[in-house]
Amino acid sequence: MRQMIPTELERGRTLDGPYGSDASYGTTGAFVVHGPCGMDLRIISSGAWDNLNWEHVSVSCKNRCPNWLEMCFVKNLFWADDEVVMQLHPAKKDYVNQHPYCLHLWKPTAEAIPLPPRIMVGNKVEDAA
Questions:
Q1: CATH number of the domain where residue 91 is located
Q2: Which of 50, 72, 79, 83 is deepest in the core (most CB within 10 A)?
């Protein structure tokens, strides 16, 4: 997770309430950021929970789930381009749903996320140099 908080994220920090924080909390806290598709994105970040070995960010919109572009936007606010994060679809018995329009990004801190072979996703066209 980023050590330096982007200005756009810091401007949207929630200072009061149950998730209120200030800049000393780093990436941990609640934020409201205007997303790339015109919606306000409500974000709660746990930052790095060292004892749990996970970084976590939840993203919600008022009237719909965040879309792919919005989730990529949030990923880039919290993590560097070369960091891999994931969305999970747990077993149904493990579902926890506290908001109907909320999605989550996760990154384990004690191990790398395995990735499938690129060919299973599709052919990547390399940029012409």
A1: 3.40.1720
A2: 79
